[in-house]
Amino acid sequence: PGAKKLAKKLMNPDLAAYKVQQTVYKFAFLLVPFSIPFMALLFLWRRSATLYDHGVFVLYSLTFVTLIGLISMGLGLIHPALGGVAWTLAIFGMPVHLFAQLKGGYELGWFSTIWRWVFLLTFCLIVSVLFTLTVLWLAVGT
Fold first, then answer.
1. Are 90 and 69 a contacting pair, CB within 8 Å?
2. Do 35 and 142 contact (CB within 8 A), yes or no?
3. Dist. CA 54–CA 64, nearest whole Å
4. pLDDT confidence of residue 16
């Protein structure tokens, strides 16, 4: 029964895409509770870092990613080549920003920042997959 229901929803790809877009913006804040536990894993033995601190870190990171994405999209509307350059810089700038934010926000040394940054990038990928699967399930799977 679930496969038939899904197939019926996918018969109209424009409607399915619209539902996914609506679900992304409605549930974008899920990225915060998805991300905080992973941030907490990076600081399990450090009592000075609280869930509140991790929440601030996550919100700041998501704000940066949103702003850099909007700027890149805007530049792409001005000229496609300009947008391409902006997206390339954004893709390489995001990990650099995470590194700098991790080092400064938690007052870490270089070695401490590097190993946490490597795990953080992996956690970002995991959270992205979890969020994408959740959005698809909410938009077309139910």
1. yes
2. no
3. 15
4. 81
Q: Which residue has the tokens 């995470």?
A: 98
> Tokens 């018969």 appear where?
11
Q: Is the dihedral of CA 71, 35, 95, 46 positive or negative?
A: positive
> Among all chains, which residue has been given the structure tokens 């001005």?
78
Instruction: Find out whether 31 and 58 touch, Cβ atoms under 8 Å.
Output: yes
CA distance 75 to 26: 25
The rounded distance, in Å, linking the Cα atoms of 27 and 89 is 27
Predicted confidence at residue 70, as pLDDT, reads 94
Q: What's the chain's length in residues?
A: 142
Residue 138: pLDDT band (50, 70, 90) is: confident
The whole-angstrom separation of Cα 116 and Cα 121 is 9
Share of the chain above pLDDT 70, in %: 98
12-16: which pairs have CB atoms within 8 A and are 24 or more residues apart? Answer: 16/139, 16/140
- What is the Cα–Cα distance from 22 to 39, expressed in whole angstroms? 28
Residue 6, C-beta contacts closer than 8 angstroms, at least 6 positions apart? 140, 141
Q: 121 pLDDT exceeds 90?
A: yes
